[in-house]
Amino acid sequence: MLAVFDQGPPPPCPAPFNLAAHVLRRGRARPDKTALSVLGRDGAQDWSYRALEHAVRATGAGLLEAGLAPGAIVLMRLGNTVDFPIAYLGAIAAGLVPVPTSSQLTEPEVATMIAGLRPAAVLRDPDVASVHHDREIPLDDLRAMRDLAPCDWAMGDPERMAYIVYTSGTSGQPRAVAHAHRAIWARQMMVRGWYDLSEDDRLLHAGALNWTYTLGTGLMDPWTIGATALIPLPGTPIAELPDLLRRHRATLFAAAPGVYRKLLQDCPTLDLPDLRHALCAGEKLSPALHTAWRETTGTDLYEAFGMSECSTFISSSPAHPARGASLGRPQTGRKVAILGPDGAPVPRGAEGTIAVHASDPGLMLGYLNAPEETAARFCGDWFLTGDQGAMAVDGQITYLGRDDDMMNAGGYRVSPIEVETALNAHPGITQCGVTDIEIKNDTRIIAAFYTGPATLDESDLRAYVQKHLARYKQPRAFVHLPELPMGANGKLLRRALRGQFEIGDS
Questions:
Q1: CA atoms of 219 and 228, how far apart (whole Å)
Q2: Which residue of 99, 177, 197, 286 has the fewest C-beta atoms within 10 A of its own C-beta?
Q3: What CA–CA distances, in Å, run from 91 to 144, 261, 322, 357, 387?
Q4: Residue 84: in which H helix or E strand, if any?
Q5: pLDDT tens per residue across span 164-194
Q6: 8-12: long-range contacts at Cβ-Cβ below 8 A with a sequence spacing of 24 or more?
Q7: CA-to-CA separations, 235 to 41, 208, 238, in angstroms, rounded
Q8: Count of beta carbons in the 10 Å neighbourhood of residue 404
Q9: Are 316 and 328 in contact (CB under 8 A)?
Q10: Which helix (H) or strand (E) holds 359?
Q11: pTM for the whole thing?
């Protein structure tokens, strides 16, 4: 039996179509229902579906009145506030192409993005790092747009570009991933294949509003179903999440593994009477953490696996729990295979590359302005994820790691080459190698190993990377070595660096 999972395609995406209109369509049946609650110690800031749709469509009208034409690319440099999803959906509603980005990015990183994207405008929060652009729309102007009459939905071909997200690449440069409007249609496969989400649910996501994991799982998916999204105020300590979950009667909870790890460390008991189950994505969930959550809360924790190019497509769920350390199985409607070096499916149980069929409606249109790089990720009709796995007889897939040196830092995929490029520009560093290190059970950090005339002051190195790299890309440990491990062909052996690290170095 070959390692191919295929239970038939999902229903075709309707046309004409608009991603933002699809997200908010269910709310029109219950316009006074709470779509979003931003939670704080003293209460919540609530947005009804009526208010949310008006803000989205009015923002779309304002962007068009500002002279932006449908199809124009708009870079988002906004903070962790409700302005972020409103601007994102507002741009899509009007037929623009937003590019959501992390507020942690530095000015040099933003400058590189602008040079590659050539956006028509930058949506700008003055408190978020950016660089000059000839067409900036400040946050105050975005908020004022909500007083305008709403725009019409820009309906069209579901295959046209809707938004762009960035992902780290093996080349060391972040890659712009273009997605079609149909991407939101594909996410319905997660509703039963991962969430078990209904319109009666109240889903609390622990991530920032401007993180793509939160944007999809925490906001757009609940809104598409007509459920209520709960998001803690920026800066809410993890230790306060249990109280928010109880007070606001959250039925589902979503976070990265690091949040669950910290919760269990700080809270030996967790009484969450309304919680049905929890959701996890962003990095691999360890069996020990899974067991600890189940024993502490009496609820299960369901994991999903995906990537910026295709969101999540393998997951466990109440209907199909994962066995042992497996990720779960491909969601119904997905076509997933494990391919060998020859590009053909391997037998079930054998190791190979996890691949998604090119027909998947959630798959990217491609890397922006990089047709050769896009083509290199495909083998015939299969998109190669670069992740290794094995498929059991029942379709469950066990994750076996990367086929390259990509790192995972708190749920963000980080290229070691990007970090090395920044550090190699330091005047005291001759050569640098970067990898992620497990410093204790279920906890990994990025560590930088470097050669140079002398050991450098660690506080100076930390200050240096803070100027050049987003926080999630910054090494947490620096190790001076007389030389870096090299292969026979002179290639840096990053994984061998781990043997040079001692826990005391952190």
A1: 8
A2: 286
A3: 15, 36, 38, 30, 33
A4: helix 83-93
A5: 999 865 555 789 999 999 999 999 999 999 9
A6: 8/333, 9/333, 9/335, 9/359, 10/185, 10/186, 10/188, 10/189, 10/333, 10/361
A7: 11, 9, 9
A8: 13
A9: yes
A10: none
A11: 0.90
